[in-house]
Amino acid sequence: MTRKTLRVVKLSPTAKLPQYAHPSDAGLDLFAIEEIRLKPQGRSLVRTGISVQLPRATEGQIRPRSGLALQHGVTVLNSPGTIDEGFRGEISVLLVNLGEDDFEILPGMKIAQLVISNVVAVDVQEVDDLRALSPTDRGRKGFGSTGGK
């Protein structure tokens, strides 16, 4: 595995740097810097107090924490959220409470994961009709077409 560098600026003295809980983890934990009460069915943009410079030709994916989702029904609303390589603003996480009870977000709490992924740039080429696309077994079958009766 090739390691790359994620440059991080703390925009708040209470911000915590993203960190892996275990050396082999795919995602870095992201931490809240503010206290927010999320009502059931409520959503909030939660600040992390950091800005990053992603490695060249990568993107950051903001993903939910499985424990928050299972235990409290709290997840990332636009999952995965995308951080483009050129973005230099504060990383914030759009959380939603799908649970039945209020959920208290506290400063220093793990709220999401940041997964760094390679990006493949493509050239877009318009073609005249569907016959210009190579045939496959699946074809145009969509939602539910591979697991149905």
Write the layout of secondary structure elements.
Blueprint lengths: L6 E4 L17 E4 L4 E3 L4 E11 L4 E6 L2 H7 L1 E3 L4 E3 L6 E8 L5 E3 L4 E9 L31
Antiparallel strand pairs: 1-4, 2-10, 3-9, 4-8, 5-7, 5-10, 6-8
Largest sheet: 4 strands, antiparallel
Shape: globular
What's the domain count? 1
Q: Report how far the terminal alpha carbons are from each other.
A: 42 Å
Please identify which CATH superfamily we are dealing with: Deoxyuridine triphosphatase (dUTPase)
CATH topology: Deoxyuridine 5'-Triphosphate Nucleotidohydrolase, Chain A
The H/E string reads EEEEEHEEEEE
CATH class: Mainly Beta
Question: In words, what does this structure look like?
Answer:
By secondary structure, the chain is mainly beta. It has a single domain (11-120), classed as Deoxyuridine 5'-Triphosphate Nucleotidohydrolase, Chain A (Distorted Sandwich), CATH 2.70.40.10. The protein is 5% helix and 36% strand. The protein has one helix at residues 66-72; strands at residues 7-10, 28-31, 36-38, 43-53, 58-63, 74-76, 81-83, 90-97, 103-105, 110-118. It is globular and about 55 Å long. The protein starts with 6 loop residues before the first strand and ends in a 31-residue tail after the last strand.
